[in-house]
Amino acid sequence: MAPSAVSTRPPSRTASEPLAKAAAAPRRSGSDPGSSAATDDGGVTFHKSDEYKFGAVYWRHGFPENGRMVLRGRTLAFKGIVGKRLSFELDAVDIASASRMGGLVHDAFVIAPKGGNGDEGEKYLFSTVLKHRKKVLEKIQTANEEGGAPEGKATKQKKAKFRMPPDETLRKMDTIAQRKLRGVSLQDYYEVAWSEGHACDKPAMYGPFLEQQGKDNVHVGEWKSGEFEGEWCGETYAHERVVTFEFMKQTIGQTLVQVKHTQRCRRAGNDRLVVHIKMEMKGFPYADCFVVQVRHVASRMGNEDLSIQIGMSVQFLKSCLFEKKIKNNTGAETSKAQLTLLDMTLKGCSPYAKEVADATEESEEEEGAIVAASPRAGGPAKLPEPVVKVLRFILVAAVAVFRNYLQPCLPTELFDFSPYTVEEALQSVQARVRALEELCLKATSTQQKKEVISREIDAIEKSIARIKKAHDLKEE
């Protein structure tokens, strides 16, 4: 049987061949079958679902360069708009939170090689854009942990702390303060801040707080149990008490203002305590147009810590022409008072705080909060040297422009200040007399000269005599 002829021409490519090859190609281990693949400049295949992109600013010697950062696997890369490119392997660098503008802005993080000598040239300072720094660092930390530890090194797995879900009513209010209490139980917080010494060994807090604020006839009622509904929030509370006091308010005159605080409390085991305060006032104009809603929420974080949040909202009961002014003034007064109460609460809870193992960790929740409980340590903030140089240059340029271009065009009377001594006043008066004589002789007729000059010069001579007499008395 004769063998069949074999063609030497290459087989023609069909349209389905690339698809068949792609289907037969092995998948990259660990990739998501449903994600689309792409290839970077180095030829490494990655998946778009594994990328995390965010806007960033690279601060090189104090000068910013905007760009974009991409977290891909365990590689963090930066590409600037003017061409700067940086790439970091997460297992070879240390990433930590940082601040800018002498500690005034907390939106930055620093990347430094591990085992470096700590020189400034080995550190790279970045700040986030639009995304919060805490979320960015958590993403980087998660990527570093999921990628596995390098050979010979073990990666420390950080257990997520227990956190309560956000309070929905508090989200509708303006945030006054947010603070973290370390090592304080929810029961101790309640007894210190809100129990007023009933059924516990802790001293009263709310009454002395109002008295320190200059309030008179302060009366703090006892908590009553039952089901109490909040008119503004529509929630149900298990306890209620009424606080009343008076104070003098400066409006058109001194006015006696009567205030009523209706406080409602609800507790969810050892995880959350909510105290909602409805503040009503009367005794001054437009007091019946609004009430102030204040909410204190204490939530458990982890096993030993508490997160304290305070919100405020000005509720208008009827329309008013001065709503904006009332909201601004009332909001400022209420915020100041609530921050003082928070300060007293923190000091009152400090003796009952337990030792916490991670007490040295940075508290990200405290950043950006509007709190005045503890002053900033280290004295006033110091501006960076480049900023000081720019401000100095602007000041010198402004003074030069004023002296050379603006001052010659302004009337000299604007720079003629009052004399400081009797001698200066005497010299000024004599100069004005001579100027008046010359002006009168040139601008008036003979008859007017006799009338005006004689009258004005007599008055000025009397003034000179009084000044000389005062000067003689001073020398004696």
Written account of the structure:
The protein is of the alpha+beta class and 476 residues long. 30% of the residues lie in helices and 30% in strands. The chain is built from nine helices and 17 strands. A hairpin with a 4-residue loop joins strand 7 and strand 8. Helix 4 crosses helix 6 and helix 8 (422-443) runs antiparallel to helix 9 (446-475). The longest helix has 30 residues, at 446-475.
Poorly predicted residue ranges: 1-49, 117-121, 148-157, 357-380
Q: How many E-type strands? A: 17
What fraction, in percent, of the residue positions are helical?
A: 25-40%
Order of helices and strands: HEEEEEEEEEHHEHHEEEEEEEHHHH
Query: Distance N terminus to C terminus?
Result: 151 Å
Average pLDDT across residues?
76
The biggest beta sheet reads: 8 strands, antiparallel
Strand proportion? 25-35%
Silhouette: flat
Give a quick summary of the entry.
The protein contains 9 helices and 17 strands.
Structural features:
17 strands, alpha+beta, disordered N terminus, 9 helices, 8-stranded antiparallel β-sheet, flat, 476 residues
Strand and helix map with partners:
Blueprint: H1 17-24, E1 37-39, E2 45-47, E3 51-60, E4 63-72, E5 75-80, E6 85-89, E7 93-100, E8 105-113, E9 124-129, H2 133-146, H3 168-171, E10 174-181, H4 186-193, H5 206-212, E11 216-220, E12 224-229, E13 236-250, E14 254-268, E15 272-282, E16 290-301, E17 305-316, H6 323-349, H7 385-406, H8 422-443, H9 446-475
Antiparallel strand pairs: 1-2, 3-4, 3-9, 4-5, 5-6, 7-8, 8-9, 10-17, 11-13, 12-13, 13-14, 14-15, 15-16, 16-17
Helix pairs in contact: 4-6, 8-9
